[in-house]
Design brief:
Number of strands of chain A: 12
CATH class of the largest domain in chain A: Alpha Beta
Structural class of chain A: alpha/beta
Radius of gyration of chain A: 20 Å
Largest sheet of chain A: 8 strands, mixed
CATH topology of the largest domain in chain A: Rossmann fold
Oligomer: homodimer
Number of domains of chain A: 2
């Protein structure tokens, strides 16, 4: 890149080794964990301007800006950049690809150096706390003692919540957007059908499709199409597609007759290019099991160290509804955490957290700027 | 059956032949159409007590009572029977398996007598008006000139609406429950993913799985599981399953860990025993294309012959929401049809129309009894 106003740095770091393995919350360990991460902006001398971004189910480390040849910028380019809410002229921003992911960080489709084969379903079952363990290690690796904020939407917001409960003194504040403290039965149901589609695809090969040279494309496509419906509101789909035919000479059949069908197909195709079926299984299962407030003493640490929290939901989000965010708010407030809560009425469903909705962006900017100024005092 | 208080009769009738073929609205014809139907109760001498039941996407002719060996009664046993809202001591009830179905009526998995092979994807594309054509023929076959009412829920309600628009003088009234006059983009999206799952299953064999000896069980299971989520409300799923584990010693993995997952699996398994993948494709596509009020002059006949209509929706139904029912109401009222509309607050989502909700059952009973008494005057 000739000019990169974000000062993007992309790195791979080996954070766990055989001498110092990653021990998983629900059993198992890995002797080699590599993490791909990007940073934007500059760490100030006092190291007080670092913001940690946690990505959602199908995100990656590339949160902002354009890489060479990219047609589209990173997934949260509306939020992160010079003069944007997470202002890279002011803040140092860190975004890693998640443990279990498929964009540079060790995941179930990675090659196990011990066996020379992909982990497949031998990869340990993941827990939200494992993400926190790896994130904390990355922060230490970067020489940072305390983050200004941990910020995330959806599964990213759940990481921000878990981290705040596990180790509140790591951060000045936590920002939890369009998230939930526990999935509903309906959430789990959709998730289960997606996994079923993947695992019943003959190309899944029992999880060893890397070696077998097969790929569960049908299953992953179906999972993505179905999930995508839950990421957007009925109203948004209606506004965008209505009952419009895909072609003007609509001859009914079982092809792609309606515009909405074409859109879903496109979503599935582009997803196959960038995502892995095993990562989808592992990361979606973390969501199902997440229920931090059910743990005894879950709030003991944050009660002792009540960092400010911003919780934000969208009225049209029916995947993780405002009700789910309000549960986070009430659980945190119950132990004395000062929470700024906002429900944004504009939006297009769950994916609103990725969009340039000014009330929402202003809210995040104001919260972070206030944290930065108060910390500087 | 030793004693059958419903006086159940199950028959097969050949309603179209090569001399008098069924010509389809969207092209194509069939030289042999057989319809399986059941009747309950007794037709009175004046033939004024006949009620026609239209079944939903995955229903069949067996609407009420127990057949020998049945563990469960017919799908609308709460509604139909002696002393029930559609009282078989008073009314003569007719319920056929739908054209395109798989429980006795000619459908895409039936053998084409001309070729000796199943129709597969050569079966003509179906339209709601084709159902009406076949239903009308059955009524004539039974020697009935005018029905007291046409009653249906979901896709059944859409048939009742279409029939009322196409031929209002066939009936004294129409009862349209939990239906819609046109699917939303979200509705079509869910439907499309289900069909995709079926057609991309290698066992689908291009629609000729009957000859090939394969079966698209995975695809049909996935379609059913996903659809089933849309038939029930989030609240109902939460109340029934919450986040309960399926077994007490919950060891996280990718199996059936949560009770909701087990429930969906069970739904899929029982569905495979009674439903056909091609029927699912054809019948679900009828729903997508249904949009009767978009046709020029759609309401001309009913405006001339404004039969009373009962339209009923359920607050918790997010598949075909009250808003969709209200659109039916306003379109009918606009042309002078007297509509009784009720939104029932109790319920568990779309499938509420199958359940014994007293306010709802009383509503249907009162409406039908009033029609019967007024007609008798």
């Amino acid at each position: 890149m000739v000019s990169d106003p974000l000062n993007t740095v992309s790195e791979d770091a080996v954070l766990f080794t055989a001498q110092d393995p990653l021990v998983f919350t629900r059993g198992g360990q890995l002797d080699h964990v590599e993490v791909r991460y990007e940073t934007y902006g500059h760490l100030n001398e006092s190291k007080t301007n670092a913001i940690f971004i946690c990505h959602a189910l199908t995100g990656d480390a590339h949160a902002a800006g354009h890489r060479q040849g990219d047609r589209k910028p990173g997934w949260w380019d509306e939020m992160i950049g010079p003069g944007k809410p997470i202002d890279t002229d002011k803040f140092y921003v860190i975004c890693p690809n998640l443990l279990g992911g498929c964009q540079g960080t060790t995941g179930p489709a990675s090659i196990n150096p011990t066996t020379g084969q992909s982990y497949g379903l031998d990869f340990p079952i993941l827990d939200m706390r494992d993400f926190v363990t790896v994130h904390r290690r990355l922060v230490a690796h970067l020489g940072i003692t305390k983050l200004l904020a941990v910020v995330g939407g959806s599964l990213g917001g759940m990481q921000a919540l878990q981290w705040a409960l596990t180790s509140p003194s790591d951060m000045g504040s936590t920002v939890i957007i369009a998230a939930s403290s526990r999935l509903t039965a309906q959430n789990i149901a959709f998730s289960a059908v997606g996994r079923e589609a993947i695992m019943r695809d003959s190309g899944f090969s029992g999880g060893h499709y890397v070696e077998e040279g097969t790929s569960p494309d049908t299953g992953l496509s179906l999972a993505r199409m179905m999930a995508h419906i839950t990421y957007t509101s009925e109203g948004a789909l209606w506004k965008k597609f209505g009952r419009d035919p895909q072609n003007t000479d609509l001859a009914p059949g079982f092809g792609v007759d309606f515009a909405i069908e074409s859109y879903l197909q496109h979503q599935a195709e582009t997803f196959l290019d960038r995502f892995d079926a095993l990562s989808y299984l592992y990361l979606s299962r973390v969501l199902d099991y997440f229920d931090p407030f059910a743990e005894a003493g879950a709030c003991n640490l944050i009660a002792d160290h009540p960092i400010p929290a911003l919780v934000c939901s969208f009225t049209t989000d029916w995947r993780f509804s405002p009700r789910q965010s309000k549960r986070v708010v009430s659980r945190l407030e119950r132990v004395g955490v000062p929470v700024t809560y906002r429900e944004i009425e504009e939006g297009v469903g769950h994916d609103s957290f990725l969009l340039p909705i000014s009330e929402y962006l202003d809210l995040v900017a104001a919260f972070l700027n206030q944290r930065f100024e108060e910390d500087a005092r």
